[in-house]
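Aim 2 progress. For Beta-ketoacyl-ACP synthase, the working sequence is reproduced below.
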Amino acid sequence: MDVVVTGIGLASALGSLDETWKRLLAGESGIQQQQPFPTFAPCPLALIGNQPTALVELTQRVAAAALKDAGLLPPLNDCAIVVGSSRGNQAEWERLIRARWEQETARVTDASYPSFNPLNWHETLPHAAAIATAQYVQTTASVQAPMAACATGLWAIAQGFELVRTGRYECVLAGAIETPITPLTLAGFAQMGASARTGAHPFDRRREGLVLAEGGAILVLEAADRATQRNAPIYGHILGAGLTADGYHVSTPEPGGRMAIAAIQQCLQRANLDAATIGYIHAHGTATTLNDRNEAHLIQTLFPEVPVSSTKGATGHTLGASGAIGAAFCLMALKHQLLPPCVGLKQPEFSLNFVMQPQPYFVNAVLCLSFGFGGQNAAIAFAASARDGDSAN
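Predicted structure tokens for this construct:
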């Protein structure tokens, strides 16, 4: 069954879907020096507001935007939900733990932290984003909450795609939301030496590391026949996905990228595409030393001439939500026939066809890549039409 995308909800440090796309094309970045926690020195972050956003609030905002974009209104009783998050409600766990510690030590509680109440633990479940989406949509259908590190967003879309493709549901909301700006997350990435000091510079010789960000994207997936019957606008078609694991290391990608390449080849085979039909690649591009080197190697191996960009120099790295945001940018590229630039890239270290400025480009098939801790590899192919497509200048 042909599966199409009829709606996109997105929130990033640059704004909503349309605001983010416009500012991305202008080469703007939502990354700023921030100090959300007084015990941490200022560092580059990509916050949506002045303070870290709550997961459930952000989820419902993005879900509402997706439904509005698709011309749908709740209740949607038979709409399945596949919304993931690599961190889940970790921020709430940390807030509750700090509140309890402050109460037990008779410290003055910061006004931004709630009083500790052990009865609230159920509001901090790791699948809170999926639950919040299901409650907003008022569905009684399947609700799934994948968690696969930074590959979560693409894994969620791939699962949603399968639910529609196999005829189980005609409509699915799929994507990922992340609100990872917490003391523990900041400390963890700093301890690993993966955090940038000034900003995100994907694939650049002077890249310093990743910049944590909050945000997310949810796509409305529908059977093409259903979308046509209700005259819904179509961003693009999902052609196939590939998912593999390295089985190598908890945080270091497999040297040579054997299983990452296998995920891409799996995606192309399932999508009935070959490398020559791909017109654009949205790279994971975290601006860390190992990821960019390994990803550049696999792109050089399979797609040496294809235009490539990473948008994390503009949005920051939203961890589990980054693939869903990348998928949204791929669909916007198909809609506008315009390739987004690799913001933050000034001096490329690798011989790839990087998109340095917004680039009008006739393209039918595009590829979105994500790679996560634990050796999670994900690739998904979108196209402007269900037919196999060629791309050319």
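Residues 170 and 226 are 7 Å apart (CA to CA). This observation will guide construct design in the next reporting period.
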